[in-house]
Amino acid sequence: MQSMDEIYQKYAQTVFRFILSKVQDSDLAEELTQETFYQAIKSSDRYDESCKISTWLCAIAKNVILTYLRKHPKHEDIEDMAIPVDSAEKDVIRSTEKTELFRKLHNVEEPYREVIYLRVFGGLSFREIGEIHGKTENWARVTFYRGKEKLRKEVENNE
User: Fold this and answer.
1) Residue-wise burial string across 95-133, b where 16 or more C-beta atoms lie within 10 A, e elsewhere
2) Would the CA dihedral through 57, 58, 59, 60 be positive or negative?
3) Are 4 and 40 in contact (CB under 8 A)?
């Protein structure tokens, strides 16, 4: 089997387009593509070459999508419905939430914190983040995803 970097380079766009066709949200599709390759790395020893690598990756992607949908059912936040969209109250709530999120992000250890900052606030691509750290683009993607999961757990633990 090829190295995961080679597989990622060759099939990332295919997996991304497959996921995008299912979720209709490019940001979510990118996040789920990261998760797909993370799961592929974890289960690479189970790939038996009985199907194409692209088929195997899309099967993993399908499971990643289903897992995501089970964990994140679509619903409207009651608070968002109660406050008018352009209200001062909503601005205050957003500002407070943002401040609290920065506090939580400060508790996330390196290199996750820095990768999140570079991606979200610096607007850098995963390739650029990988180059800054002397690592691969895939490393940056996986580190970003893991950092987001740590941040999510930090937020959930303090709710």
Assistant:
1) eeeeeeeeebbeebeebbbbbbebbeeeebebeebbeee
2) positive
3) yes
Inter-residue contact 119 to 144 (CB < 8 Å): yes
Per-residue confidence (pLDDT) for residue 159, from 0 to 100: 58
Within 10 angstroms of residue 146's Cβ, the number of other Cβ atoms is 16
3-state secondary structure of 130: helix
Q: Which H or E element spans position 43?
A: none
- pTM, to two decimals: 0.48
| Residue 46 DSSP class | G
Q: What's the token pair of residue 63?
A: 């499971």
Using CA atoms, how far apart are residues 127 and 125, in angstroms rounded to an integer? 5
**Integer Cα distance of 95 and 98 in angstroms:** 5
Interval 69-81 mean pLDDT: 56
Question: How far apart (Å, rounded) are the C-alpha atoms in residues 138 and 71?
Answer: 25
Quick one: pLDDT at residue 91? 55
pLDDT of residue 22: 81
| All residues at 6 or more sequence positions from 128 whose CB lies less than 8 Å from its CB, including other chains | 118
Positive or negative, the CA dihedral 131, 135, 44, 64 is negative
Question: Is 22 in contact with 65 (CB distance < 8 Å)?
Answer: yes
